[in-house]
Structure formats: structure tokens, C-alpha cells
Amino acid sequence: MRIYTRTGDTGETGLIGGQRVPKDDPRVEAYGTVDELNAAIGVARGYLHDQPELDALLERIQNELFDIGAELASPPERAAQFQSLEEPHIAALEQAIDRFEDELPPLRQFILPGGTHAAAYLHLARTVCRRAERQVVRLSHSSTVNAAIIRYLNRLSDLLFVMARVANHRAGVEDVKWGEPGWRRKRAPSQEETP
Hints:
This protein is mainly α and 195 residues long. The protein has a single domain, classed as Hypothetical Protein Ta1238, Chain: A (Up-down Bundle), CATH 1.20.1200.10. Helices cover 55% and strands 5% of the residues. The protein has a two-stranded antiparallel sheet with strand order 1-2. It has a two-stranded antiparallel sheet with strand order 3-4. Strand 1 and strand 2 (20-22) form a beta hairpin. Helix 1 packs antiparallel against helix 2 (52-72), helix 1 runs antiparallel to helix 5 and helix 4 (87-101) packs parallel to helix 6. The N and C termini lie far apart (49 Å).
């Protein structure tokens, strides 16, 4: 089977069920960004070989995101057959957040995304998750959307933030707090300092 079909060469794509829509349709933007989030999490997992607990949780989340993508890729009249996300999925994310926060020092100021490779990519996944959430909210203004998806993505971004901190903490790497010396200039760089 060939990977290319040429059916999208005119700028349209097919939803589940065959309906054709433009590739910049809000529904395509929503499930496309969820797919991007899934890929970002996949990159983060590549740096979590020494953290089987985090890796296993992210694998489960990737499967759930695939289910969400299928639901979003369906027109509203067909979406119910793919709807698998329920409140227990959201509760599981909250339980993981609470469990991980118990091992972290309290956070009293903003931190810069970064640290270990795993943490940096978890932060990147968090920002993609926020964008996916915005895209799904935008879609909900013009079409019926399972409200649990929005709650799930909102909670998932929180979990990814906490997991990034956990990845740093377990590696013995401190989070870099926003505004610490050396990270924020009080003046603009001179022309000589500009690369």
C-alpha cells in the first residue's frame, strides 16, 4: 500500500466517514495539533529510558490522544462512535499530578523551560498541548465537541509541566527560576554584544 494517495493535492482532506473539508478547517487544525502533541510526547519519551514510570504514563496518554484525534476527525454526527474519553481519564491525570507534586519542592515563582533533555521536551509538549486546547476550544464555537476533551487537554498541560519538573528533580537538575541572575538582563544588549 502506498503512503501517498494524491487525494489531498487540492488542499482538502477527508474526515472519518468520507466528508471532504479544507485542510485549514478548524476541525483539521484541532486534530492536527493533537497529533503534533502526540509526536512531541514521543520525542520526550525518547529521553526517558531511565524513568519507566514516566514513560509508561506517557505511552498511555499517547494512546488516549490517538482516541481524541479520531473523535475530532469525525463529523459531529459520527463522533459519538469514537468517544472514549470520560471523567475517569481526567481524574487519572489529576491523581498523577498530585502524586508527582508530593515529591517536588514547592514552586514559589515561575521557571524557565529547560533542564534535562527530557524536561525540555516535556515543556515543549506542554506548550503544544496548550495550543491543542485552544484549537479545540475554537472548534467548539462552531461545532459540537465533547467537553471532556477540553478538560483533558487542560489537565494534561498541567501534568506535563509537573512531569518536566520531576524529570529534572530525579536527575538532580534544579529548575531555573525566571529572573535569576544571568538569565535576565536589566538593559538591552549593546550592538557589540548582539550576535
